[in-house]
Fold this protein.
Amino acid sequence: MIETMARSIETARPRFASEEARWRALCARDAAADGAFYYAVRTTGVYCRPSCGARRPHRANVAFYDTRDAARRAGFRACKRCKPDAPAPGAEQATMIAKACRMIENAESEPRLEALADAAGMSRFHFHRIFKAATGVTPKAYAAARRGEKLRRELPRSGTVTEAAYGAGFNSSGRFYAAAQPMLGMRPKAFRAGGQDAVIRFALGQCSLGAILVAATERGVCAISLGDDPEALLRELQDRFPKAELIGGDRDFENLVAQIVGMVEQPGTRADLPLDIRGTAFQQRVWAALARIPAGKTLSYRELAKRIGMPKAVRAVAGACAANTLAVAIPCHRVLRNDGALSGYRWGVARKRALLDREARA
């Protein structure tokens, strides 16, 4: 999340390397381009940020520069409206939020909201609001997600479950055991052993898009995979939980599989499936937004980012879509590239196109 918020200019610059890309960013007043380049207007003698709200200049009068110094050396002065010679709007705030995130991640136990707000020089209420607006989650939820990540790292390499709990920042065994199973999807001891003693039911079948695998823990469906090779789908499941007990589904489980196949074959069919969704707080926020996209409709990654209140987190949103392991149930196939083209899909672009074509016809 820090990388998303404090994305460096050097990372952004290649996206706007060509003059065509820079002109498009200028026309869109794309704040994501601020700092990656500057544009100057020959008729006014000023240089601006790409997001400047001034009237759009004629293309023939525009020159692009990588840095403010380059624009100044060419004889242009700073725009008084967008003030490109001052720190970028929101830059200090983004730096402050990134610092708070590092403070949460490096703390041995969850920092109190008051301590985070004091470090940022804000009131509790203002800090809480700014943090949620920037990250999409509350400080408490961010801390819980990071604690979950630490726990998943610590369990396999710690001598005992207790050591892993304290290493992940839990300061009492009661809090740890209350939070661990929902966080891991199984008992901590089983997770530490690579899924040992965990029972995962599964079934392989065929649908019009090829092979399909459905797997479920006691909490709900944890995998819906599509592919060409059933054995490859099963190996992928085994790799996720190398020591779990995989059991072929019974008749009731076959009925669950039939429901999911129905969602593939008949777009718009909705099944009230219990889902075992494992991901960071940010990923779960994206997946919840995906689930609200109706069949026959699509969004761009940028539009999806706006829906979750994080318009600048387009890349992070795309990453969360790619991390989805529940085909169709969490309809990441309904998200397109910002130019409307199909982009990568975990189970193949051809399947994404087929799903969208069916939903469009329906």
